[in-house]
């Protein structure tokens, strides 16, 4: 009897759902939602039949749903031995962290000192100093650029002078060769 009552209540709920979804013009007693859903299901089955890739994909949907389940990690938990091995592998890092925390705990008195608490009142002064430092860096960059330009000009000047001296040297050499030949001829 309870099955009939629950089945009747389910049928009433489905009928109410059909009425709320479909307008009165669309509602046909012959065309029920369950029949429509079965028809769609059958069409999908016939479309999938014979296509291996789609069938494989549908078979993997269960696995995907299993992996996306938040409780999956609980099912895949590590054994006690594996957990122990992980802790032993990370032992040095854990000990280092404990030592660092102990050092911080020992130095907490210095972290809470008046000098550190006074830092907010020094902020405007630090800002001014940082702005002055930025200005000095900009000035130094400009000076460096000007110095490089002067050095390049100096190099060009020295190169020009060297070429001129080489030219004069070759001219003097030619003149001296000419005089030596004249002296030999005249003697």
TrEMBL record:
Pfam families: Dynactin_p22 (PF07426). One of its GO terms (cellular component) is dynactin complex. GO terms for biological process: cytoskeleton-dependent cytokinesis. This is Dynactin subunit 3. It comes from Caerostris darwini.
